[in-house]
Amino acid sequence: MTFAIVVFPGSNCDHDAYHAVKHVLGADAEFVWHKDTSLKGADCVVLPGGFAHGDYLRTGAIARFSPVMPEVVRFATSGGPVLGICNGFQILLEAGLLPGAMLRNRSLKFQCEYVRVRVEQTDTPFTRACAAGQVLRVPIAHGEGNYYAEPETVARLEKNRQVVFRYVSESGEATDAANPNGSASNIAGLCNEGRNVVGLMPHPERACELAVGSADGLVLFESVLQAVAGGVRHAL
Amino acid sequence: MRARVFVTLKPSVFDPQGTTVAEALHTLGYPSVSDVRQGKYFEFEVASASAAEVRRIAAEVSDKLLANPVIETYRIEVVDPARV
Amino acid sequence: MRARVFVTLKPSVFDPQGTTVAEALHTLGYPSVSDVRQGKYFEFEVASASAAEVRRIAAEVSDKLLANPVIETYRIEVVDPARV
Amino acid sequence: MPFDAQVLEQHGVTPEEYARIVELMGREPSFTELGIFSVMWSEHCSYKSSRVHLKTLPTTGPRVLQGPGENAGAVDIGDGLAAVFKIESHNHPSFIEPYQGAATGVGGIIRDIFTMNARPVALLNSLRFGSLDDPHVRRNMEGVVAGIAGYGNSIGIPTVGGEIDFDDSYAGNPLVNVFCLGLAKADEIIRASASGEGNPVYYVGSKTGRDGIHGATMASAEFDEKSAEKRPAVQVGDPFMEKLLLEACLEVMKTDALVGVQDMGAAGLTSSTCEMGSRGGVGIEIDVALVPQRETGMTPYEIMLSESQERMLLVVKRGREAEVEAVFTKWDLHAVRIGEVTSDGRMRVKHHGTVVADIPNRALTDDAPVYRRPMSTPAWLAEAQQLSFEGLRPLEPGDALVRLLASSGIASKRWVYRQYDHMVRTDTIVMPGMSAGTIRVKGTDRALALSVDCNARFVYLDPAAGAALAVAEAARNVACVGGTPIGATNCLNFGNPQRPEIMWQFGKAVEGMGAACRALDIPITGGNVSLYNETDGRAVLPTPTIGIVGLVEHADRVVTRTFKAAGDVVVLLGDGRGELGGSAYLSEVHTLVRGVPPALDLARERALQALLVVLAMEGINRSAHDCSEGGLAVTLAECCFDAGIGVDANVPASTAPSAGWTDVATLFGESASRAVVSVTEADLPRLRQMAESAGVPAAVLGKTGGDRVRIRVSGQPAIDVALGDAEKTWSGAIGKRFTRAS
Ligand SMILES: Nc1ncnc2c1ncn2[C@@H]1O[C@H](COP(=O)(O)OP(=O)(O)O)[C@@H](O)[C@H]1O
Ligand SMILES: [Mg+2]
């Protein structure tokens, strides 16, 4: 299976995603330049973290206009698995592939630290190998990860079971203390209604080897490997 | 002609920056200041002689790029040298 | 009374954000837009009936907190409901 | 003379120096040429006061691939790879505008690394501020930290370590020293040297504006107030542009179409042009009218002296232009041809074809003035070295420990490094706060352990000894992790060199640093000197910061600060002599910076470090932490923190410096060449035997476990505090100062 890792000007976790899927997971990976208009027949698209266009103006605001994005949208609407990590998540929000927007962290500071997220949904291509309610220890590294959506939207997300990851305490409760940035209902990650597009602020690709602190993030990539092998893409 | 665009968070959206500024101002001894909202301010030149045209373009680029409708609203001012 | 403060980089100070926004607008098909400058915009309530007083306070807090005098300048508007 | 005394003074050019310029030129310089000389002969570019001293530092060794003189130094780390690293200061700009000053400091050092065809993979910083009681200092520090974060995070280079200390002398002159390390193929390092007559010279990056032009020149003849007003001394960083430059340059360098590259740092276009020419023994001719400009009506003088950020100068092989241009275009950068290499060894600057400056490169570089400035021992020193305990009451050890853990210099710096992305690139295997920041080298078994250190109190009380102690501490930090020190870079922050006692501090510090590096076999491959760090004639504490690179043979065996399990044996390597001179205890508890710093036996230090590396690589050490600020008590407490494992230790009493001071001297004395390690019961004999054959004293202090930090001195209870409380104090102390209420 092949992952397409989209490289925007200012992406800086593109190589980390590449390393995770290619050298740790053992799948194939291709970088796709943001000006390309083909996804090279990839089975899964990753929008990596970083500071596309410097995060100037607004995170993801300029990147969503990249020439590659119409292809990403087409891939997504055809049911292909798309993962947006951190800045990639912010781009998915700006592009309207996922609902809501990001505000500054309530600390008003960039925060780089390990957090715990609970897997709320296991019927997405990126969580199907997880146990329901499984708690993952993964790092965050962002200044604008304070998820916001109108209350009705949040309610709809909950009702449709689109909240895929939630910030929780060590014991697994979604407390305010466990919420690192002020996100609405501790939301750390979402999926679209088709469930094939997933975005999250934490960095699973940074948590794929114990040597660097945690391997809890690998399960997201193993999940999509299974999903693609099982041909779920067409089922969706 | 010069256009000005003011982008602010919708009233319904909690503004962590504004809140922090307000708190800071209170500790600095300005109790009379309240309800601080922080936004973005853009100024740019539009090569056109018609104020209406400038306003149209400013609105277009605000909708497309400068503001995020999910959380923000904007206001436009056109500085018409003829009128200044 | 409501005060508005517009904080902008001094004309000579490099504005990477503005430059990047301008470039984005050109690729989006707005060649007529140029010289984009991005700044900050503050709106707040001042508990006082005197426009002069409000302006004075706004200027004070701008000097102290809202603007960085080393690289930024600011402009103040007082929205006097009586006059609106 | 066409220039009156005032113009020369504003350019910082002495009458003697001016005479020298005329002699070297064989004529009077033009105004533009005077400007060019003034920046190239400035302390910052010419090292005219420090050069004679720096010459004495050890800069060679079997691993050294590039010593001082290039954009950065480089050492061989095996597997055909090189570590390319350097440290830079951005002190003054960070006082004027903390965020941008610190941010552009980071930008500058990153460019120094990637211009050598190295991929930057780690950042560290060494910071000095006044007391956090001062709100201005807090605002300054908040801005500096945010600026470092804003720039480094955006580019995607992890900040894996650093140090921060506090002293009133830095209140009006903070120190912001930034270290960057990159990885390169050893045989593909690119030098900042021009060659090949007719090869085109390219400019790429941000447009040139009036920013950063030497403040002193503002009022000079050619300009009225308005144009002065037009020229902000503050430069704004553009990390996005830097990221594009980084990726584009590394991509271009793959093509081998480049002859040389240099970034436009201090003295911008001027230094890059004449330095590249003189290194290659050639000349460079450019036309400044071709330089992309951000503002209208810029004069050649302004264009040549501008210090706008994120700009590079490239010399390209003739015939390969198209390849190079194509890569930059891909990254939406356009490389502009502004001139070419000549054979006459001169820097010739034209403006729309007319020559506005024509200077032999040598005159600006090799022939720049060199001063052997007078040095004299400070009058106050002898007195400051006297340490009398008369009238002092030793604080109860338990209270003293808490006081020290709460002090800004010792408290956890998490509030700071949490704002830095320290994990991007997924190579960080020892995180900030856990020990010397360590990054694995993908594709090899190896890792690099990095540390920057300087205890300026020690340097103040004895510059030679203090600088040597800084080298020892930094090297010990990397050795604790399991790294063998293989290279160093330094950032020498001092006051006004024209004052003999400052110059003496400088000279002595360089002496001590050199001696330590020689004894420990650590070549210094480069560095940076920052002088005139003074406010109202009061100099900062002399701060010769040292950055050390340690090579770890087995990345999977790195050892960190924290205890790993209850029931392990805690061992002190090296021995304490109860030395309190210049200690954190004296300055925190008795607000005294007095006495002489701890004695340092470099042979013992070297033996200890070698032992630490073996103990780590043999998998014997489960934790290791060097004993520095705050002494043994603080070190033991820090080993418990973040591990949730307490300690019960019994420390042999050191000889007391004065009656009644035994406990304090034993627990808080800062004797050098010590580390606290923990091992399993089973491994203790091996450790003993290895320590013995290494000639390093090893004393079993006690065991890990429980939820208290309990320390006895020769059997007598001295400290017994709850781990949780102590850790809360230590971890919250800095953040508390920045909570909005404060
Ligand atoms: N400015 C900083 N940036 C990043 N990490 C820092 C900074 N200051 C301190 N640290 C980290 O905190 C820990 C303690 O610093 P320090 O007290 O200097 O350690 P040591 O005494 O072992 O040299 C180290 O791991 C260091 O890397
Ligand atoms: Mg230290």
Descriptive report:
The complex is a heterotetramer, with one copy of chain A (236 residues), two copies of chain B (84 residues) and one copy of chain D (742 residues). Chain A has six helices and eleven strands. By secondary structure, chain A is of the alpha/beta class. The mean pLDDT of chain A is 96. A nine-stranded mixed beta sheet of chain A has the order 2-1-3-4-11-10-9-6-7, with helices on both faces. In chain A, strands 5-8 form a two-stranded antiparallel sheet. The two termini of chain A are 18 Å apart. The longest helix of chain A is centred in the first third of the chain and has 12 residues, at 14-25. In chain A, strand 3 (44-47), helix 2 and strand 4 (82-85) form a beta-alpha-beta unit. Chain A has helices at residues 14-25, 69-77, 87-94, 151-159, 218-229, 232-235, and strands at 2-7, 28-33, 44-47, 82-85, 101-103, 111-119, 135-142, 146-148, 163-168, 187-191, 197-200. Chain B contains two helices and three strands; from the N terminus they run βαβαβ. Chain B has 84 residues and is an alpha+beta fold. In chain B, 33% of the residues lie in helices and 36% in strands. In chain B, strands 2-1-3 form a three-stranded antiparallel beta sheet. Chain D is an alpha+beta fold. In chain D, strand 15 (437-440) and strand 16 form a beta hairpin. In chain D, helix 7 (98-114) runs parallel beside helix 10, helix 19 (463-481) packs parallel to helix 20 and helix 22 packs antiparallel against helix 25 (684-694). The model of chain D is unreliable at 215-230 (pLDDT under 50). Chains in contact: A-B, A-C, A-D, B-C, B-D, C-D. The A-D interface holds A 9-10, 12-13, 15-16, 19-20, 33, 49-51, 53-56, 109-113, 139, 141, 143, 203, 205-206, 208-209, 211-213 and D 146, 149-150, 153-156, 238-241, 243-244, 330-332, 417-429, 431, 440, 442, 555-556. Strand 2 of chain B pairs antiparallel with strand 2 of chain C. Bound molecules: adenosine-5'-diphosphate and magnesium ion. Magnesium ion (MG) binds next to loops of chain D.
